[in-house]
């Protein structure tokens, strides 16, 4: 068991992006994020999502992942404000699944991409990861574009695979290996 470290990159003139352990006062931002239609459409956040759930997420669920080494989750903090959660879910044997979701206020700023670069650098260096996998419901172009920017290679579509509120949705899957360049591997093939 180890607590979440604090990670940051220094970029002059840019917002301060920090990955850190979740705190009780992140509950309000987490609650707001989970009311957002895109978060509800593309993640399996419970519906309705209550303030109690948000409190449990930041005080129990996320710290619990560090306690049992099942998920290394970080709060994304931008200029001192809660802006989302990013994580690596430990799949064992040097493998992890990347997961991310941002509060609407920070979208379109590039902060999520910076946070995910910090997360991946940390996971490959400090958890000896060899392969990180990304899954998304088909059609989630915002998530796919971020993964593409980070250097993930699209492996294809898996039919009826991701559980989503009682059904199985078709899924896109992509991978990033420890030695892969962290830049797009192909021309962008989605909508612009
Ligand atoms: C995925 C997410 C974290 C990305 O954050 P972000 O990078 O700040 O988001 P943006 O809105 O800037 O979208 C990223 C890019 O996708 C593009 N995009 C967004 N929606 C799109 C759509 N429906 N079709 C095509 N492109 C789209 C944006 O234009 C942007 O491109 P650009 O950077 O070239 O301008 C954020 O959208 C989110 O929290 N979504 C809900 C939760 C989620 O889907 N999590 C991932 C589950 S796999």
Model description:
A hairpin with a 2-residue loop joins strand 4 and strand 5. The protein has an eight-stranded mixed beta sheet, with helices on both faces. The mean pLDDT is 97. The protein has helices spanning 27-35, 37-42, 51-67, 111-126, 141-150, and strands at 7-9, 17-20, 71-78, 81-92, 95-102, 131-137, 153-164, 167-177. The termini are far apart. It contains five helices and eight strands. The relative contact order is 0.14. With 192 residues, it is an alpha+beta fold. The protein has one domain (7-177): Aminopeptidase (3-Layer(aba) Sandwich).
Q: Give the CATH class.
A: Alpha Beta
Give the ordered list of helices and strands.
EEHHHEEEHEHEE
Instruction: Report Rg.
Output: 16 Å
Our count of helices gives 5
Percent in helix: 25-40%
Straight-line N-to-C gap: 43 Å
CATH architectural arrangement: 3-Layer(aba) Sandwich
Strand order of the largest sheet: 1-2-3-4-5-6-8-7
Q: What coarse outline follows from CA principal-axis ratios?
A: globular
Largest sheet: 8 strands, mixed
The tally of beta strands, per DSSP, is 8
The structural class is alpha+beta
Tell me the fraction of residues in β-strands, as a range: 25-35%
Structural descriptors:
EC 2.3.1.57, alpha+beta, Acyl_CoA_acyltransferase, 8-stranded mixed β-sheet, 5 helices, 192 residues, binds coenzyme A, transferase, diamine N-acetyltransferase activity, Aminopeptidase
């Amino acid at each position: 068991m180890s607590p979440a470290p604090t990670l940051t990159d220094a970029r002059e003139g840019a917002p301060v992006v920090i990955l850190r352990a979740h705190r009780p006062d992140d509950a309000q931002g987490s609650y707001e994020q989970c009311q957002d239609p895109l978060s509800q459409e593309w993640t399996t956040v419970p519906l309705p999502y209550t303030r109690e759930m948000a409190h449990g997420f930041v005080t129990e669920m996320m710290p619990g992942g560090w306690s049992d080494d099942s998920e290394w989750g970080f709060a994304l903090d931008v200029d001192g404000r809660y802006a989302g959660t990013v994580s690596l879910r430990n799949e064992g044997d040097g493998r992890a699944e990347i997961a991310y979701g941002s509060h609407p206020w920070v979208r379109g700023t590039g902060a999520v991409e910076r946070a995910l670069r910090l997360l991946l650098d940390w996971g490959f260096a400090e958890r000896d990861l060899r392969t990180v996998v990304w899954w998304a419901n088909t059609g989630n172009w915002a998530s796919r574009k971020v993964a593409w920017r980070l250097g993930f290679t699209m492996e294809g579509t898996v039919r009826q695979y991701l559980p989503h509120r009682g059904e199985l949705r078709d899924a896109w899957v992509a991978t990033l290996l420890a030695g892969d360049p962290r830049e797009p591997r192909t021309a962008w093939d989605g909508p612009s």
